[in-house]
Amino acid sequence: MLLMIVKMSAIVMLYVCLTYFLWSRYRDKTLRTGDRVLLGVIYGIMAVLSTHFGVNYSQMMLNVRDLGPMSAGLFFDPVSGIIAGLIGGIERYIVGTYFGIGSFTRIACSVSTCLAGFLSAFLTIYIFKRKKPSAVYAFFMGAAIEVFHMYVVFVTHRSDMRMALHVVKTCALPMIIFSGIGLALSSLVIRYTEGGFHNIFKRRPVEEVPVSQRFQLWLFAVTAIVLSLNFGLNYHLQTNSALQGAKEDLSSAAIDITESYQNIMKRDGHVSFMSNHVGQKGSFFIYNEKTNSAAGIASYGMNKDELIRLTDEHNSGEFFETDVFGSEGLCLETAMYDGSKLLVWLPNTEIYELRDIQSYETLLSDLLLFTVLYILIAMLVQTIVVNNLDLINKSLNKITGGDLDETVNVYESSEFASLSDDINQTVVALKGYIDAAEKRIEQELLLAHTIQDSALPKNFDFNHTGFEIYATMNPAKEVGGDFYDFFFTDIDRLALVIADVAGKGIPAALFMMRSKTAIRSLAETGKEPADVLERVNNELCRGNEADMFVTVWMGIIDLKSGDITCVNAGHEYPVIKRANGDYELFKDKHGLPLGAMENMKYSEYSIHLDPGDSIYLYTDGVPEAININEEQYGTDRMLQALNSCRDMHLKELLPAVKKDIDDFAGEADQFDDTTMLSLNYFG
């Protein structure tokens, strides 16, 4: 047996290596017709070789011929599996019919090999949906085709069931196991190559197990238990029936032998020969203790002393099991009219032969029935339950992704129809709530926009001949985090502020209002810009759990001298235009934004404006505006736009720059607030 296991393992590994080699070659290719035919021929040749180079075991030739078409169909293409099955099956029938190789089982072998090709095609298309089966499924598919193979042996040999039983007893277990192992190993190799290998014995969380897999597991377990109990009960009943039949046969044989013995003794006075038969392979022994004579010994070569001992140990009419004639059997001892003792025997192989035939046939048919029912029920569950659940989940994913116009249309049963209607009604109600909430939020944001807009100074017409000023603020959302401000701190001192809060929307707007109010309140007390920002920074750092910050440029211009005392807290560079000159960046020194770190010190610097000079301030929404190609507007384009409109009035200049930004961005959405402030100094 060990030699058989080694040889069968070697043949199986040959199949696995071939599958790995071919899979490595074709895994990234789309199979053409020629490729499918070639693969079918290769595996068909492997099936043919299995016929001629099988493993000799107990005068039987073991093979794994059906691995060829099953491997071709399950792992490559259905057409390849059919071709391989036809090649292997037809060749097996030809050599069995015309060359006498395995002629007894030629029909069963041919049918099973051909069916293996068609079965692999069916499984690939309708069960596995052209995906590679797992190792567990592959094992059971390989085992199932060999179960069918053995069952067909019984079906096609009704006239010689004894020989069919011998074939099945010898070949069934090794061929079923090794065919299953071959397909399972091939599946593992392919999945490992694809990177999809996982430990099938590792317990996964319940939420990760598909409902179809759980159903199939329970279906397998329950069906296997029911079939096992049914088989065990039938086996027990058949054993009792066979034993009772054997006792009746022994009793009838004992009566016949006794009558023959009496006739011979009356006629001849002694027994020289008796031709009575006990079943097909049974025997008998007659011993007369008075005359020390025996009958039946010469015909069967029995050990006379051992048989005499048995007659002494047992009583007349007693049935007992013992190894009498070289094999286990059932004996009956009977006392004859002249005091002789009759021992009648039947071997267990004959007693239980019919039971074994029926049991094997029942077991194989039950396994086939189980396989068919398992596949059909799995298909029904997949079609009726799992596919509809997938459709519902697909629609739900769209709905949860924001597509509230999606509807669930699964009405193949009352349960799914009710579920679809409930989901659709929930979505309709949800859309109503969302619409109401959007309208409420829209009104609230409109009010917030109005409040924020009213907080920014809009009176640009000062009764002052020394300057003109103008500013714009365009938030990316309804409310923004940018702000500008200008106000007098003294009769000839004008404060200019532009700032950008990190973030957008309501949180940025609230932080913006807090920052604006704090800066203006401190600046109006007459403090210098650096002192103002230092105090505001510490105030903003307190209670800043959201870690928000704001970049600020602040300057106070002396309208008499044109000197501006400035501080830059992480904001964009200001832009200066000299009289009759171009707009140019003034690269000043930056400090940290306000709210980033407490107790920061800020450095002041000065800018001097002569009559006719201008200063232009902006937030990062201007240079960082992007178009659909994700290109930034940049400071170079900003300066170009300013210089092309430098002779315009400020109320025309800033909108012109905004229009140039919008033209550059095109269809791209405005992603940040855009704020600009400009002052012309006249002296």
Short structural summary:
The protein has 3 domains: 2-201, Orthogonal Bundle (Arp2/3 complex 21 kDa subunit ARPC3); 242-354, Beta-Lactamase (2-Layer Sandwich), CATH 3.30.450.20; 456-681, 4-Layer Sandwich (Phosphatase 2c, domain 1).
Description:
- With 683 residues, the protein is an alpha+beta fold.
- It folds into 3 domains: 200 residues, Orthogonal Bundle (Arp2/3 complex 21 kDa subunit ARPC3), CATH 1.10.1760; 113 residues, PAS domain (Beta-Lactamase), CATH 3.30.450.20; 226 residues, Phosphatase 2c, domain 1 (4-Layer Sandwich), CATH 3.60.40.10.
- The termini are far apart.
- About 1% of the residues have low confidence.
Can you identify the CATH superfamily of the largest domain? Answer: PPM-type phosphatase domain
- Termini, distance in Å? 113 Å
Largest sheet: 5 strands, antiparallel
Helical proportion? 55-70%
Low-confidence stretches: 297-301
CATH fold type of the largest domain: Phosphatase 2c, domain 1
Beta-strand fraction estimate: 5-15%
- Gyration radius, to the nearest Å? 49 Å
Strand order of the largest sheet: 4-3-7-6-5
Mean pLDDT over all positions: 87
CATH architecture of the largest domain: 4-Layer Sandwich
Number of strands: 17
Number of helices: 17
Helix/sheet category: alpha+beta
Q: Judging from the principal axes of the Cα atoms, what is the shape?
A: rod-shaped
CATH class annotation of the largest domain: Alpha Beta
What is the topological layout?
Elements: H1 2-26, H2 33-52, E1 55-57, E2 60-62, H3 67-75, H4 78-98, H5 106-127, H6 135-155, H7 161-194, H8 211-268, E3 283-288, E4 293-295, H9 297-300, H10 304-313, E5 318-323, E6 328-335, E7 341-347, H11 348-351, H12 353-400, H13 414-455, E8 467-474, E9 482-490, E10 493-501, H14 505-523, H15 529-541, E11 550-558, E12 563-569, E13 575-577, E14 583-585, E15 605-608, E16 614-618, H16 634-644, H17 650-665, E17 674-681
Antiparallel strand pairs: 1-2, 3-4, 3-7, 5-6, 6-7, 8-17, 9-10, 10-11, 11-12, 12-15, 13-14, 13-16, 16-17
Helix pairs in contact: 1-7, 2-3, 2-4, 3-4, 3-5, 3-7, 4-5, 5-6, 6-7, 6-12, 7-12, 8-12, 14-15
